[in-house]
Design a protein that fits this description.
Helix content is 25%, strand content 29%. The protein is of the alpha+beta class and 181 residues long. The strands form 3 sheets. Strands 1, 2, 3, 4 and 11 form a 5-stranded mixed β-sheet that branches. The longest helix has 20 residues, at 138-157. The radius of gyration is 18 Å and the shape is globular. The protein starts with a helix and ends in an 11-residue tail after the last strand.
Length: 181
């Protein structure tokens, strides 16, 4: 089947993919740098319908202690304690080297966390208190946002539980570099 992406763009590709795979529940997730949203594919109307009344801020609050709870979106803005750090714009540094201009921009804008590099020289988020240090890859922050948007979807669409398997299409950055893999 040939797609005419010029007519309907990415929406056409999304609908085509979801038709092909025929899963129980198909969603599209826009994992944005500042906000994240989710849409459900409706087989009857052949359209994607946005779930929820608003987008979720792509911000995560976490502790140096990985056993402590993680908060995402609006909940991340609530006060939680001294050893919690608010991390945002993590998606901008995925796959980038510590000396990249995008990483420098984030380092200069935000002071709630440090940026360091891993063994491959890629930028890593560092949370530091007097007694502890925790390093996280930006992909781990994005994974927390994805977990939250799926939780919101399941709570809204399947409040009694019994959610079938979810098949998702997730957007990628508009400016994609190979190192982001």
């Amino acid at each position: 089947m040939k797609l005419n992406l010029k007519k309907k763009g990415i929406e056409n590709l999304f609908v085509h993919f979801l038709k092909m795979s025929e899963p129980s529940v198909s969603v599209g997730i826009d994992l944005g740098t500042t906000t994240t949203g989710i849409a459900l594919y409706n087989k009857d109307t052949n359209k994607a319908e946005v779930i929820g009344s608003k987008l979720i801020p792509s911000i995560v609050k976490l502790s140096v202690d990985p056993k402590k709870p993680v908060r995402v979106g609006d909940a991340a803005n609530r006060k939680m304690g001294r050893d919690y750090f608010l991390v945002y714009d993590a998606k901008r540094i995925i796959g980038r080297k510590l000396n990249d201009e995008n990483v420098d921009l984030i380092r200069n804008l935000y002071s709630t966390f440090e940026l360091t590099s891993d063994m491959r020289g890629q930028a890593t988020i560092r949370l530091r208190t007097k007694n502890a240090v925790r390093d996280l890859k930006p992909q781990q922050i994005s994974a927390e946002v994805l977990k939250e948007i799926i939780r919101v979807f399941k709570d809204k669409m399947y409040p009694a539980g019994n959610c079938p398997n979810v098949k998702a299409v997730i957007t990628i950055p508009g400016v994609y570099i190979l190192e982001m893999c």
